[in-house]
TrEMBL record:
This is 50S ribosomal protein L9, chloroplastic. The lineage of its organism: Eukaryota, Fungi, Fungi incertae sedis, Zoopagomycota, Kickxellomycotina. Residues 105-171 form the Large ribosomal subunit protein bL9 C-terminal domain. One of its GO terms (molecular function) is structural constituent of ribosome. GO terms for biological process: translation. InterPro entries: Ribosomal_bL9 (IPR000244), Ribosomal_bL9_C (IPR020069), Ribosomal_bL9_C_sf (IPR036791). Pfam families: Ribosomal_L9_C. GO terms for cellular component: ribosome.
Length: 174
């Protein structure tokens, strides 16, 4: 009698089944034919009943990626390259590191260290967010992370196109 009380609630002496427990008991079972032997279910070719969730086929990661790529809009890389060629210099602002001025550094604003750096990801994000260009960080080529104030060049190489040389300026954040 204890298991039946666990599935019911007494309301003025009348047992009432809880909705979530009813749903659990009446899950839809679907007959399927096994395409290969599964130790817990049966041999290849057997028809067995399983819950509906087990009967739905799972897609492989490759199938899911193909479907996602098919839903994405096609990118005209030549058009994107044309827009890149007409971009102005990209501007980044960073705080300057506090250092003791030495005799060689006085008067030069370049080569001052900055907090953080400017990376491929930063450049790609700026091109996407401010200029609405579909640029991946893997397409951006810089020599190394930019860790000082000044002007720098970088390349953007889109698939199946020639690289585009662009400029960026790192300035002091006030």
């Amino acid at each position: 009698m204890l298991p039946s009380l666990r599935n019911t609630v007494l309301n003025a002496g009348q047992p009432i089944k809880l909705p979530f427990q009813c749903r659990q008991k009446h899950k839809l079972r679907v007959p399927i034919q096994l395409l290969r032997s599964i130790p817990s279910l049966g041999k290849e070719g057997d028809v067995v009943e399983v819950r509906e969730t087990k009967a739905s086929p799972k897609k492989t990661l490759e199938q899911q990626q193909k479907e996602i790529l098919q839903r994405l809009p096609k990118i005209n890389y030549e058009e994107v390259r044309g827009k890149l060629e007409h971009l102005p210099t990209l501007e980044f602002t960073r705080k300057v590191l506090e250092t003791q001025p030495s005799a060689t550094e006085e008067g030069s604003s370049d080569n001052q260290g900055i907090y953080g750096s400017v990376t491929q990801s930063d450049i790609a994000m700026t091109l996407r967010d401010k200029h609405f260009l579909p640029i991946d960080k893997e397409w951006v080529q810089i020599d190394s992370k930019i860790k000082t104030l000044g002007s720098f060049e970088f390349l953007v190489t889109l698939p199946n196109t020639e690289p585009v040389r662009l400029q960026l300026q790192v300035t002091k954040h006030e």
